[in-house]
Fold each of these.
Amino acid sequence: MLTDGDKIRNLLAEYADLVDAGDLEGVGRLMAGASLHTLDGTEIARGAEAVTALYSGLVKLHEDGTPRTQHLVTNVHLTEQRDGTVQSLSVFVVLQATDGVPLQPVITGRYVDLFEPAGDGGWRFLRRAFGPSLTGNLTQHMEIAL
């Protein structure tokens, strides 16, 4: 039987899998009830349509329809909040290899997520704040410069 922590970690992995597959509409559906923020708290998207639009404007997809990345989410620290939500602090590392760029880490950063019970025994994203810690060659990964 999966614990609540397992279910939340599965959502973190599902997000990474969707981005790596180039399924930006899937990212929007996953974040449908959530708001996205920079680490300083600035809201940048809310709801499925806005999240899909944000990622479509940020993530560069290649000929195979993917960003040619592997997102790793590590150092997950879960804390139950008084209101029944769970906060997750984690670190991400994005590896990328394209025809023009050999396998390399291109960006690392932090996620600060808030999850709420979904009512069906599962959990869902309520809020995500994220930002870079270290950046490398992002020319093949992002449509805009950081």
Note: The beta strands are 35-38, 43-46, 69-80, 86-96, 104-117, 123-135.
Amino acid sequence: MILFRTFQSSTLIRLLEWGSASLETSVNQPALPHVIVALNAAEVDVNSSEWGLKEATDRILESANVSLEDPFISELAAEWRRNGAKIETIRDLLHSYYSSFTIVRIPEKTHYNILYNQISVLSRCINMCCEKSHETKREMRMLSTSDEIGIYVQLAFDHFVKERGLIRPFDFIGESLKLNPIPKDFGDHLMQLILTVKRAHLKGGDRAIFETLTPVLASTLILDCTRRNAKGV
């Protein structure tokens, strides 16, 4: 969540810079982050509908006075288009870097009823984004325990503070394999299985052997990854 008193074109530029830097310096990210912008001390003299999430987001994006013609934004859009993405609006570009983009208006303290309602709206929005992120990570088998999260945060911190940390990407799955390496005898057991099947297929070539073994090897690898809680598998 990001706090701003005013939302200007520079705010969008900053968000796009952060999003671009994040993608360039990390690989195997389990999910794109969600962005919630809380506008502090927002004007109360607006249409009542603009206190809603969708209406506030639409209205402020329209009034931000930012277009795809901006040199920096145009370069980002062109890069995504080269990769086959359809970028027609600023919203499209934002969603290339973030799972969602939401603006919540927070009024001054003197408007207690509106303030209470908007804090409730902000709380529900945060919970909703957390639930979506949790579900996405669960589907990708990238959920971490509370202990693991602390370890990955420390590993990421150690990575990015190094001299070339912002140039060389941080690999979540690579670090997971370091924490939970494949057993050294696992490959030996698989090789023994392959040799046993090869001896049984006296009339079959290597292709026939591996066509027979593919389902067994795949299930064996998945079972091993599940037992080791390997991420992203």
Note: The first strand starts at residue 2 and ends at 4.
